[in-house]
Automatic annotation (TrEMBL):
Gene3D superfamilies: Phosphate transport system protein phou homolog 2, domain 2. PANTHER family: PHOSPHATE TRANSPORTER. Belongs to the inorganic phosphate transporter (PiT) (TC 2.A.20) family. This is Phosphate transporter. InterPro entries: Phos_transporter, PhoU-like_sf. GO terms for biological process: phosphate ion transmembrane transport. It comes from Phocaeicola plebeius.
Length: 764
């Protein structure tokens, strides 16, 4: 029996390793998004700074593991078996849940997930124990701490409201002081700003990052608390002078602030959130050692866990190993970069590829905000508006190469996050590090006018999605862990083993899927270069390349899918038709994203060039969309026909159709090659043969209609589907001919307006 539970404890530690890996990937957004978004240094340098902070925080922490031992449940009323069920269910749920959020690229709170998992597992066992208690003396309050759940929920609301308002106001004031061309306004303000920032971060390191370190005695903490005003005042004077001197020595003070802020948040994260990753396994290990040493023959259902009421004494080796794993995860995790990318993209200064779509609530918020803005424009005096607009002149923005926002905003993000977390700690408000850092970044981006009317609805949808994910985390963590605990409690070792296998399989499957997804969704380097280029001619060249790749891809996709659909109908392959339908839907979503990117590129061109290219761009883009609709109109009747097991198409129809299909695919392939190689010498020949093919398909249509009128076909339903294929095939030829012509003129030089009109109306 003891051997079995030793195996469970070992597996808890194995899950803890996974939890550290996926947890750090998720929480990396807390302390790295500002440094990465502002490009204050190379990514490797940022990683090194954050890694030092993470390792120091983990090792200096005394492992505040009490929340996992007795912060949620009262162990004196639970047996060894019940505690092990709860702890194993928590770890299985936590690892899988965090990995799902990381894969989706959404930041969530490891504190919320662990607390609500513990609550879920404890709640279900408490209910079972109350129901089975013959004395009727046990109550829910005897077994679980419901106040903790309420404090965490309150923390979500406080984090969102306070952080967003403060982030917006402080960033707005900071921008008025420094403007986007901040290097012109640093004469004396930088010293004061740097003094405030470094003093705040230093105080944050002491109060939030090192308060649990072994060398921080109660006496030292009491002395710091008694002399806070003197310490803060002295540090402010010293650091103000130091920052001003560094500025005179041509040191970028903002870089110092951002890197110090990254270090301080990483230190605090590791020191305070380590319990979220290894607290549960350590509680299980402590319970196991207590049972082995003191059970004296008592059964696993009878030995109560009163020993967990004492404070944890975490061995240093566990802290060191945890620190090493966290540093490794930080340096190697691709999912960490994915989560950081979500936060950075939502706060990006310039327009670009938006990760999220549009939601009804976001549209309502944007409309209301626009109305308020219109009212303020009418109320504020013209001179004041001009002065404010001058401070927010984006044409003067100073951005590092590839940066999403400037160093002023990055500094404000980090300093404010630290200050708000300190305030929450002092006032005993449970502010989440994840929530504070993310929402401050969103508020500061709003104040910086990064959310234009063209992108606001997408950004707000993204923020709402992340916030919604936080509440979903709490609900899902509570529910799933309660269910897993319930099953484990009644199935004993079999259920435990089954869930262990399920957790491992889900983790492996998730990582395999993520790797495949990452390969498919490769980074769009052409778009990034196009959006960052200041040279209009280079922007045009990159836009041409991007459009060329889009048109080539969609012609190739339509050719392949057309064959797949028609083969699926002829061979009655339902699976192939379903795959074609799903692939077409995915391509429609992808086309929408590509089209938005290319419109953003078109806006960056000189107005005369943009007007010239606009017609041909939209003709090509609309042609891609129409090809997809055409494929769907072919696929849906075919899929319905095969799914209902109706009679197949006659061999005579197949025999006459295949040569036409082969000719159509051959011409589409030639068109694709012409577009991809930007060589249109054979375009006229391709267009002519396409016109001839349309006539051939038209003849087949008339022939098929005559057959149907004469009643020669065995199956009217199959004949109707075949007629639809011919009609849509003829339409498909017209569409890709439009697309080839659009690509030809878009990639070429100036086209006279009369030629444009002739080209557009030739086949209408």
């Amino acid at each position: 029996m003891e051997t079995v539970y030793l195996g469970i404890v070992i597996f808890l530690f194995m899950l803890a390793v996974f939890d550290l890996l996926v947890g750090v990937s998720n929480d990396a957004v807390n302390f790295m998004n500002s440094a990465v978004g502002a490009k204050v240094a190379k990514f490797r340098t940022i990683i090194i700074v954050a890694a030092i902070g993470v390792f120091a925080g983990a090792v200096l922490s005394n492992g505040m593991m009490d929340i996992a031992r007795h912060g949620i449940f009262h162990p004196v009323n639970f047996s060894f078996y019940e505690i092990m069920c709860i702890l194993l269910a928590v770890m299985v749920t936590d690892v899988v849940l965090l990995d799902v959020f990381n894969t989706l690229g959404l930041p969530t709170s490891t504190t919320v997930s662990m607390v609500f998992e513990l609550l879920g597992g404890t709640f279900i066992l408490a209910i079972l124990k109350i129901v089975g208690d013959e004395t009727g003396l046990l109550t829910l309050g005897d077994m679980m701490n419901t106040e903790k759940a309420l404090s965490v929920i309150m923390g979500i609301f406080l984090s969102v409201a306070v952080a967003f308002i403060v982030g917006t106001v402080v960033q707005y004031i900071s921008r008025l002081i420094f403007s986007f061309n901040y290097k012109k306004n640093l004469s004396w303000t930088i010293g004061i700003f740097g003094g405030i920032a470094v003093t705040s971060l230093g105080y944050f390191i002491i109060i939030k990052g090192l308060k649990s370190a072994s060398f921080m005695t109660p006496e030292a903490l009491a002395w710091i608390q008694e002399n806070t005003a003197m310490l803060v005042g002295g540090c402010f004077v010293i650091f103000t002078v130091l920052m001003q001197v560094l500025h005179w020595c041509r040191v970028n003070v903002f870089k110092v602030i951002v890197l110090l802020g990254t270090f301080s948040l990483a230190l605090a994260f590791a020191g305070n959130d380590l319990v979220n990753f290894i607290g549960v396994p350590l509680a299980g290990f402590s319970a196991y050692t207590d049972y082995v040493a003191n059970s004296n023959g008592a059964g696993i259902h009878d030995f109560m866990m009163s020993s967990l009421m004492s404070s944890a004494q975490t061995p240093l080796i566990f802290l060191v190993i945890s620190g090493v794993i966290m540093v490794y995860a930080l340096a190697t995790s691709k999912k960490a970069k994915n989560v950081i990318k979500t936060s950075v993209d939502l706060a990006r200064q310039e327009e670009g590829d938006e990760m999220f779509g549009s939601s009804a609530l976001a549209r309502v918020i944007v409309r209301r905000a626009t109305s308020i803005n219109d009212f303020l424009v009418r109320v504020i005096p013209v001179n004041v508006r001009r002065w404010i607009d001058g401070r927010f002149n984006k044409d003067e923005i100073i951005l590092a190469d590839g940066a999403a926002f400037d160093m002023v905003r990055a500094s404000v993000n980090l300093v404010l996050s630290g200050l708000l977390i300190i305030m929450g700690t002092t006032m005993k408000l449970p502010l989440s590090t994840t929530y504070v850092t993310f929402i401050v970044a969103m508020g500061s981006s709003l104040a910086d006018r990064a959310w234009s009317r063209e992108s606001a609805v997408y950004r707000i949808t993204g923020v709402l999605s992340v916030i919604g994910g936080w509440f979903i985390t709490a609900f899902v963590a509570f529910t799933i862990c309660a269910l897993v605990t319930f099953v484990m409690f009644y199935t004993s070792f079999f259920g435990m083993f089954a869930f262990i296998v399920v957790a491992v399989v889900l983790l492996v499957r998730s990582n395999i899927r993520y790797s495949k997804k990452e390969k498919v969704e490769s980074q769009d380097d052409v778009f990034k270069r196009m959006m960052s280029s200041k040279d209009k001619s280079e922007t045009l060249a990159l836009l041409r390349q991007h459009v060329q790749e889009t048109l080539t891809d969609y012609v190739g996709f339509c050719e392949k899918t057309y064959v797949q659909v028609t083969d699926g109908f002829i061979n009655e392959d339902l699976r192939s038709l379903r795959k074609a339908m799903n692939a077409t839907d995915d391509q429609k979503k992808m086309l929408k994203k590509r089209r938005r990117k290319e419109i953003l590129g078109l806006r960056r061109l000189p107005i005369t060039v943009a007007m010239e290219k606009n017609t041909w761009f939209h003709l090509g883009s609309n042609s891609c969309e129409q090809m997809l609709y055409c494929l769907k109109r072919i696929c849906e009747p075919c899929k319905e026909h095969v799914d209902n097991n109706f009679n197949p198409i006659s061999p005579d129809c197949v025999k006459e159709f295949l040569p036409v299909r082969d000719e159509l695919c051959k011409l589409m392939e030639r068109a694709k090659v012409a577009i991809s190689q930007d060589n249109y010498e054979e375009a006229d020949d391709i267009l002519k043969k396409g016109d001839d093919l349309k006539n051939r398909i038209s003849a087949l249509r008339k022939q098929q209609m005559n057959r149907m009128q004469e009643g020669d076909n065995a199956s009217l339903k199959a004949s109707m589907v075949y007629l639809n294929i011919l009609q849509e095939s003829q339409e498909l030829v017209s569409i890709w001919r439009h697309l080839l012509r659009a690509s030809r003129f878009f990639q070429g030089d100036y086209v006279p307006q009369e030629v444009s009109m002739i080209a557009l109306t030739e086949e209408r």
